[in-house]
Every structure is written in structure tokens, then in C-alpha cells.
Design goal:
Keywords: DNA-binding, Transcription, Transcription regulation. The protein is of the alpha/beta class. Helices cover 42% and strands 20% of the residues.
């Protein structure tokens, strides 16, 4: 058996058009060619691939088993080429190939989803690279050039190297499971009492904040790598800790978690900044995303979405 030949992109497009249009005549009208040219192109494609793609014994050509298997490949190739051409056109027009964003773990996921959906709809050819990090890592990744744009709540003392814009805040509240000892106490809870219980604390892996603690009262604390783990342990009653209000809103409403009345930390506003390097302005897509964050975030965060 001879090896299959190399089909052309045009042959593959005609094959897909015949199936999508419902026959040779309809495909010919759609592609502005004669029916004989369409039929000849399909015959050549079958010759190239050494298989019969269409059963012509019926009024309307139907796919053979081989045709069904290869149609998906033909579609994939055509779509890949179309995507490549669209990306090349965008690059030629000055649009960057990729935008990288790092977002603070405290940032509400629902708000982030809105922003990223809008970006992908506006710039479908631009790859978006996203990282979710805690505190100092947001600044560090923008500082070392790993990410073009940062959305975070902690800023380095060397803030002159950045363009920083305050866009709102995230409300953090201390919570615990209803069966936790601190949740059983009435009235303000003193720091001395809070220190006696395990505090769940989010780890910060940035070298910028090495050795620093923010909002840590407990002498015994568990350092966790992600907010999801902290949330699960809080609900299990294994400690207490501060959480973004948006993430525990449903838990508070259903009683799975309760707010703690701490005398020194009954809740705080975690500021959110839009961070960029001053010496490396973003491209067209990155600038659009930064402007979108700046315009939309104050309103979204204010209304607690």
C-alpha cells in the first residue's frame, strides 16, 4: 500500500465545506466555484490520502467511516491556520503576543473572571498568562519582569520603580467554625486570648517580605500555601484566621463560619493596587486590560461582587 500524500490546505477547506454546506452544489456556491471544480478537488484529496472520504451513491454525499475519522483532522488544520493568520495580522498591527498578569490571592475570583472574560473577548489572539500569588509575590513578579501587570495589596518600599494606582479594597474578617472555642466567647476577644489558639496564616513566598508577618496574632500558627486550604481548615474548626468577605459570605449566611469579635482585629480593609513597571509600558492589549481594571474595579469591589 502506498503512503498517503500531502494534502493541500485548499483541499481540506473544500472537504469541510462540502460537509457543512450539505453537498457539492451548495459548497460550490459558497466557495464561488463550479461544481465540477469542487468534485475534482475532493477526488484529488481522496487520491492524495489513498482513502474514499465520501459515499457518492446517494443523492446527497455522505461521509464514509474514513471520512468521518479525517473530517475532524481537516477542521483542526483549517482552524489552526486561521488562528495563525489572525495572530500574524494582530502582531503586524502592533498587538503583543502575550500579556502576563499576577493577581493577589485575596482578590475576589468572581471579579477576576469578569475581567479575564472581557479581555479574551476583546483580544482573542493574545495569549493571557495568569498567576495567583500572595502579598509580596505580586510586587516581586512585576519587579523582575515576569509579569506585565499586577493586582495586589502589598507594595514594596521601592515603590518609585512602579506605577501604582489604588483601585479599591477587599474586606478581610476574622472567622472560625461555630464550634471553635473563640466562636463561643461573647464580647471582644483580647489578643492574649486569641494567641492561645492556632491561627491559620497564608504563606508569602516572596523574598521581599521574608521574615515579616502581617496580621498574625497567634503564637501557634499553621502556614498554608493557598486560600482554598485555609478555607477548608477553618470550616473544619482546626483554627481561626482572616478571610476575604466575598469568599466566606455564603458560610456566614449559613452558619458554617462565624465572625470573631477581636478587640484589635475585628476586620480590616485590604487595599488593592494596580501595579506596573514605570520603565516598561504595556502594549496595546496590556494597556487595555490595565485601563479596564482601573475603570471597573473600584465599582465592582465597592459593591462586593
Amino acid at each position: 500500500m502506498r503512503e498517503p500524500g500531502q494534502p493541500s490546505l485548499d483541499q481540506l477547506r473544500v472537504f469541510v465545506a462540502v460537509i457543512d454546506a450539505g453537498g457539492f452544489a451548495h459548497a460550490a456556491r459558497q466557495l464561488h466555484r463550479t461544481q465540477s471544480v469542487i468534485s475534482y478537488t475532493i477526488a484529488n484529496l481522496e487520491e492524495q490520502l489513498n482513502v474514499v472520504l465520501l459515499d457518492r451513491g446517494k443523492r446527497k454525499p455522505t461521509l464514509t467511516d474514513a471520512g468521518k475519522a479525517l473530517l475532524a483532522d481537516a477542521r483542526t488544520v483549517a482552524l489552526k491556520v486561521d488562528a495563525m493568520r489572525a495572530r500574524a495580522k494582530a502582531l503586524a498591527g502592533g498587538l503583543e503576543a502575550e500579556v502576563s498578569v499576577v493577581v493577589d490571592v485575596m482578590f475576589p475570583t468572581c471579579v477576576l473572571v469578569r475581567m479575564l472574560e472581557a479581555f479574551q473577548a476583546q483580544f482573542p489572539t493574545v495569549a493571557l498568562r495568569l498567576r495567583i500569588e500572595g502579598m509580596g509575590m505580586v510586587t516581586q513578579l512585576v519587579m523582575d519582569g515576569s509579569c506585565h501587570l499586577g493586582v495586589g495589596g502589598w507594595m514594596s518600599s521601592s515603590a518609585d520603580a512602579f506605577e501604582r494606582l489604588a483601585v479599591g479594597h477587599v474586606q478581610l474578617i476574622p472567622v472560625a467554625a461555630p464550634a471553635h472555642a473563640l466562636a463561643q466567647m461573647a464580647g471582644p476577644i483580647s489578643p492574649a486570648v486569641a494567641r492561645e489558639h492556632v491561627q491559620l496564616v497564608l504563606s508569602d513566598h516572596s523574598s521581599l517580605t521574608a521574615g515579616q508577618d502581617f496580621g498574625v496574632l497567634g503564637l501557634r500558627n499553621w502556614r498554608l500555601g493557598d486560600l482554598g486550604s485555609k478555607h477548608a481548615l477553618l470550616r473544619a474548626g482546626l483554627g481561626w484566621g482572616n478571610m476575604p468577605e466575598s469568599m466566606v459570605r455564603d458560610d456566614l449566611a449559613t452558619g458554617r463560619l462565624v465572625p470573631l469579635q477581636l478587640s484589635v482585629d475585628s476586620g480590616e480593609n485590604y487595599p488593592i493596587y494596580l501595579i506596573q513597571r514605570a520603565d516598561t509600558p504595556p502594549g496595546q492589549a496590556g494597556k487595555w486590560l490595565a485601563e479596564r481594571f482601573a475603570e471597573q474595579l473600584p465599582l465592582l469591589l465597592e459593591h462586593g461582587f
